[in-house]
Every structure is written in C-alpha cells, then in structure tokens.
Specification:
Blueprint: E1 2-4, H1 5-10, E2 16-22, E3 36-37, E4 40-49, E5 52-66, E6 73-87, E7 97-99, E8 104-106, H2 108-117, H3 127-132, E9 137-138, E10 141-142, H4 146-151, H5 158-174
Parallel strand pairs: 6-7
Antiparallel strand pairs: 1-8, 2-4, 3-5, 4-5, 5-6, 9-10
C-alpha cells in the first residue's frame, strides 16, 4: 500500500483518506504460527505537517493459526488500530519516527509488523472440533476426563481405599 508524498503535500495539511485490501500472505512463510492469512482490509487517514507525516491506520482480517491442543486450523479474526509517524527530514532521529527517503511512502512493512504483533500466544478450536480431533488413546496411555476420574478408582489403589476406610472406622470408635 503506497501513499504519494506529493499528494499529501497538495492536501495542505488536510487528512487524506485511504482504503484498500492488500495481500500480505507472504508473512505466513516467516518463522511464526500463521498458517495462512486472507487479504487484509486497511483503512485510515494520512496527514502531513511540514516534514512529518502521521498515519492513523485500521487493519482488519483473518489469519489461520494452529490450535494449541490439537494443531487443527483455527481462524482468528483481528482488528488493529495503530498510528505510525514518518518524516522526510534526515535530521530528525527518533525511535518511533520512520524515515521516508523517497517520494512514496510504502505502508506494507508497517502493516505486516502490526499483524505479526497481533498473533496471540495460543488459540483453541471450538469444542466440537476440538473433541473430534483429540487423540483419545495411544500406546500405553488413555485419555481420562475429570468425570471418569471421580467415577473410577484405580484397581491398584482399591486396597488402599479399604485401609483408609478401616482407619477412619477405628478412629470413630475410639472417639
């Protein structure tokens, strides 16, 4: 997504609106959890004040991430509101102000950066999809739910349970 500095200068300080769907699917090839991403809708305004350019940007889209439990695809919708500051002056050095050294301001790298920052630590599939893709048993193990744990007592612990019951009966008769 490109904004032309000359067009911003012609607006005489008035905000210039923009809206475009852009394809940033190449970020799925980076080292992150994004499996795929649909084209994102980018809206916003840009205004110039001397050498300084301020862009208020809203980014909306959907990325596909792996479920933290089953690794199935989970769509994650996001909406990002951000403000980016730019300058055409080579003499201004600030960490949060990006230098524009041509007649064109390309917002695509900043859009990608904000989308990457929006990736959650983990996502979970919906319950029915989660249950359908959960492995219930393997070699030497079986998945046990909380309900099954309270219903069943491990047969190896059955004698311990009777011992505990005997001890509590003895204490009751002494007291």
């Amino acid at each position: 997504m490109k904004l032309y500095i000359q067009k911003l200068k012609q607006s005489q300080g008035e905000p210039v609106s923009f809206q475009e769907k852009i394809d940033i699917s190449d970020i799925a090839n980076m080292d992150n959890d994004i499996r795929s991403i649909e084209p994102v809708l980018v809206r916003g305004t840009a205004r110039i004040d001397g050498d300084d350019i301020t862009c208020d940007i809203q980014i909306q889209g959907t990325m596909i991430l792996p479920c933290a439990r089953t690794l199935v695809d989970v769509p994650f919708e996001f909406s990002i509101d951000t403000a980016e500051s730019f300058t055409t002056s080579i003499y201004r050095e600030e960490a949060e102000v990006h230098l524009v050294d041509s007649e064109v301001l390309d917002l695509t790298p900043y859009i990608k950066e904000n989308v990457l920052l929006e990736i959650p630590l983990r996502v979970f599939a919906e319950k029915d999809k989660l249950e359908a893709n959960t492995v219930k048993e393997g070699k030497g193990w079986t998945l046990v739910t909380e309900e099954e744990v309270t219903e069943k007592v491990d047969p190896r612990l059955e004698k311990l349970k009777s011992l505990l019951d005997d001890n509590s009966n003895e204490e009751d008769s002494k007291g």
